[in-house]
Every structure is written in C-alpha cells, then in structure tokens.
Here is the input.
Amino acid sequence: EGPSLLARPIDSQAALVDAASTGLPLNQCDDLNTVADLKHALGDEAFKIILINLLIGNQIVVCSSEDDVSTSIVLLLSQLLPQRCVSLLLNSATYQEAYSANLLSTAGDVAIPEHVSTDSFVLITAKKTEATGDEEETHLVVNGSIPAVAKSGLTYADGIFKAIAESSNADVLEQWLSTLREQWLRHSKAFFLLSRSNASLVQDDVARAKTLCLQGREVPLLRFWCQGLSREHRAKLLRQAQTQPQT
Here is the structure.
C-alpha cells in the first residue's frame, strides 16, 4: 500500500493551519450546505488559504474517510469558479494530477506523488478527535499556504468574505456569490480580448489589468480564468469585438 496522504513531508515554507483552533467541529456546525458553513468550519485563516489557491488554479485535495464530508467541501468550492475552470473528481481511489482534477476528494490512504510541488496544492483533511464523553468530533485541518504571487490577496476573495458576513440568508448569499463570479468572469473575458486587440499589452499582464481599472494583484486569477475559455468561446468573443461599432 502507498503511504498515507498525510505522511508526505510538507515543504517548510507551507504553513500548517489547524482549523480546529479557529473553526468549529463539523458535528457542532450546521450541515455543510453553503460556503458560509464551510468558512465557519474552517476558520478565517484556513478558509482564506484555500480560497486564494482555488481562485488562481492551484489544486485542492480533500481527504476524508467520510464521503459526504469530502463531497460537500469539493462541490461548495466548485461554485466559486466558472464552470469551465472546474475539473472535479469525487472519491478517487488514487491521486490525480491537477490538470485532470483541480478539485479532488480522496480516501485517507491515497498518496500524493513526490514530483507534485507543495506550492501547487492545498490539502484539507477531516480528522476525528475525542471530545467529551464517548463522542468523536471531526475537525478540518488545512495544509498549505498562500502562494507568493497572491500574497497581496484577491479582490474576489475579499468580496466572498464580505458576502458571507453580510448575507441575511442562504438565498441572498448564493445570489451574491453568483453575481461576484459573473463579474470576474467578465473581467477575464475583457483581459483576454486586450491580449488580442492591443499589441502593446500582449506581454504585459499588469498593464492589461490596469487598463481594465483592476489592480496588478488580480493577474493570477485572470490568467487562470482565461484558460477556462474554450476555443469556441474565444472565437465568439473576438467576432463580437470586431463587429462592435468604434467610438
């Protein structure tokens, strides 16, 4: 048998964030029905690490012996990305590379190969611990860090935190998050078009972002989301841009 997923040594630069210290045990939280439930179960710091890695295209691996827990986490996270940026695989018996599954749920005895850089994935593990009495509590432990290219954060991630904090109910939160996702998808489409319509901006991603009145820190997200645009969709965008009247 391969080594436990947790047995793999983690790069010393990757912070181990134990969500049990800031989040809530899963059996004391509501079911994981919304992104807000997931944030409460993880705590702010761990949730931010997962969120930023997710939004710039790094792989999220969820390891749990309870399929319903890992499935809920992966499906909730997938809602924060455009559909074409999601490669999802549930309850895999073996590790899959990020190009096959950027959202992957696995059993506890699946090993991550040594060639996979610790800078390119975040590991979420559901761990059972003894509580008062004979009951066990399940905590989520996060192994990973915010990549250097995203140390300044992401405006979309900030918006997700705000939506969670200020939404009055699950329906409002869902609509707010959907609006945010579509807003950043429009930004990514405009970012792509600038690379085709302005020769001076082709090699300068930060300048392209600033042309759209966006900060340079958004570039990692915009690059990843542009990769999710299919060849057909890119061609459609270019045709539409060519037929728009010049002002």
